[in-house]
Amino acid sequence: MASWLGELEVPAPPVRTLPIRDVVPDLVVEGPVPGLAEQVRALHRRFHGAS
Q1: 51 pLDDT band (50/70/90 cuts)?
Q2: What's the rounded Cα separation, in Å, for the pair 13 and 30?
Q3: Structural contact between residues 4 and 42, judged by C-beta atoms closer than 8 angstroms
Q4: Vertex 35: Cα angle to 38 and 12 (nearest 5)
Q5: Could you read off the pLDDT of 6-48 as tens digits, one per residue?
Q6: Which residues lie closer than 8 Å to 3 by C-beta, 6 or more apart?
Q7: Which superkingdom does the taxonomy of this entry point to (predicted)?
């Protein structure tokens, strides 16, 4: 996510971002899912006013 926001030139948030595995070490995480990843990127582009 941080890299996506960097690509959109969005300023860093005022708090440190954490990988989900740092928050919940035993959680099984899958992804990014290719089809959904592009949809999520599109949502971030729209939210941050990028084209």
Answers
A1: low
A2: 25
A3: no
A4: 30
A5: 888 888 889 988 989 999 999 999 888 888 988 988 998 999 8
A6: none
A7: Bacteria
The whole-number pLDDT of residue 14 equals: 92
Tokens representing 14?
Answer: 């005022």
Looking at residue 25, its pLDDT comes to 95
Q: Which two tokens stand for residue 16?
A: 């440190």
CA 31 to chain centre: 12
Dig out the tokens for 40 from the structure.
């999520």
State residue 25 phi and psi, 5-degree precision: -60, -35
